[in-house]
């Protein structure tokens, strides 16, 4: 191919030359014998276009060449490409399309090179579509628009064949679907509108048909296996031939048809649904269920609900089982009933361990299942068993772990682990304040009677409780433990004092435990008429204590004391381990052979209940140290008692237990009283902040504030509101009786004293102290105010505030001796 020397080239002449090159390119693409383009051929074609575009007008044929460039594609497509596609169908059509698209891209690439000068200048100046775009547009307008529907249907048919297990040419599908993407020239419209939309619709229909059969034929685990496999295969299809943007849409369709549509039917299958999987501990199937339903919007809601129902049912069954066991043992010994309750707590711990592991492992620590577990345990953990609240049961369980000779025999490591689990259970109990009071009572008995098995364990559980419930929850308990350490030091000092003062020694081994009133449970203090032997002991210790401080008042709690006395019986002398009350009663018989009930009560100065209790333990129980007339099993005011000199036992040292007073009623009463103060303080605090508030909102905010420690009763809150109204803290709105206002009266010191008292009793001592500091009052009124703070601070063991309040009292009125003594009592 040669070209004469440059001269003006007219359009026909130049185009005739270009057509020869274009024809050669077509022949090469069609596979006809034709030599490849040489560099010289390429340069001649390019130069021809260059010359025809750079000639002076009217011989500048740029526009005409731009048009003929497009016409060349149109002619080739119409004459060659379309006929070859129209005569083929299905997979053969797809293969032909891939071939024609590949050829067309080659043709576009070569012709764009030949006509490149148009791209550089003419097209740029006129803002026309680039040559490459013109070539692709021709294919789209003439080929794609005609056959894309057939192509789409053929591709979807092949996908369905593959879903049914047939082998298909994945590479072919990949190439076909790439055409949908490439023909969009940077946009996904063609792929999404002309293929993806129909493919997704077909996918939904396909899996809808499958699911409707599987749900009837398969068990829940088998169905989930199939669903998981289908999702895996669809993801595999995306990775091999579908566009990556199709993956979330495709999986959503599969999940919707296989899982969402049949959620309830699948999860509630009678013998294989979620309930059955939980019942039969099918961990793998539960994990698969979580993985599948996690991908569905709110898909885990029904799973977590069933989980909650199942755990609630199992826990409630444990409660009923414990109730039935307690009822069956009611006629037997009380400690057997108590053992059943211990077994119940242990079973609840095991139940929590089991389902917490499910939450962590099967349900991947998902918050929804933690919430379900919490709500389930809150249902049955707040039910009582055999007349005991869950708070009491948990406190008793801890007591059995921590005391010497408890029913729970565990290693140190197992004890720590169990205590950790107990504290977790406490989070589900609404009456945490009730647990705290029961626990404090039992802790006191362990500490005072040397029943605690290990001090480290005592401190460990207090640390755990502090982390769970806050420092205020454990402040008194920690004070009790500290008190015992100080008491031991005090006892050592007392022994030194006795060794250095031989005249003061009472001749009896005496151990005294000095306690801080605010830390310990309240104990009744009776003016017991002590035997002369014991009176000397009390006087000696009082003298010793006054050498340390002259302003502290000691209140003796004889009900907590123990004595070791020798009983000289005819068979042999025996050592009796008894309480101070029992010892005082027995020592009366050193001076009298026979005493009546009324004489014993008069000489000891005890109440009827205490006299009956201690005389029953000495004359009607296992060890009959006293002989009773008449010889009955009960104590009456007409009975007479004598020392039973003939008593004997195979042991030379025996402990005679005095049945403890049932403190449950008092604990509940004390907690109810504290709750009233807490509700008052909460209401005042809320109204101080909000000024005006509706009844319902005030109640709800009060419940929210107090919910960490207990669940206040709505009626109790209403009652406290009424009480605060009568005391001028609140007033009803004149127009709306359901609206309350913080009372607008000018507060005097009495109001502030009440506020300080309420805050203090509710354990908000820092707030009470800040309030007290803001009040300017006359000395007498100020003494009342600071005396109120001192009293509540002492009750809660806040020695720092006791000192502050006491100092203020001294400054205000040095004549207020009672307050000073109260301070010194700490």
UniProtKB/TrEMBL annotation:
**UniProtKB keywords:** Ubl conjugation, Ubl conjugation pathway
The yes or no answer to whether the keyword Hydrolase is present is no
The record lists the membrane-crossing segments as none
Which interval of the chain is the signal sequence? Answer: none
What SUPFAM superfamilies does UniProt report for this protein, alphabetically? Cullin homology domain, Cullin repeat-like, Winged helix' DNA-binding domain
Q: Which GO terms describe its biological process?
A: jasmonic acid mediated signaling pathway; ubiquitin-dependent protein catabolic process
| A Pfam family this chain is assigned to | Cullin_AB
Q: Which residues form the Cullin family profile domain?
A: 389-619
Gene3D superfamilies from the entry?
Cullin Repeats, Cullin, Chain C, Domain 2, Winged helix-like DNA-binding domain superfamily/Winged helix DNA-binding domain
User: Domain of life here?
Assistant: Eukaryota
Its family remark reads: Belongs to the cullin family.
Q: Which protein are we looking at?
A: Cullin-1
**Per the UniProt entry, what species is this protein from, by scientific name?**
Protea cynaroides
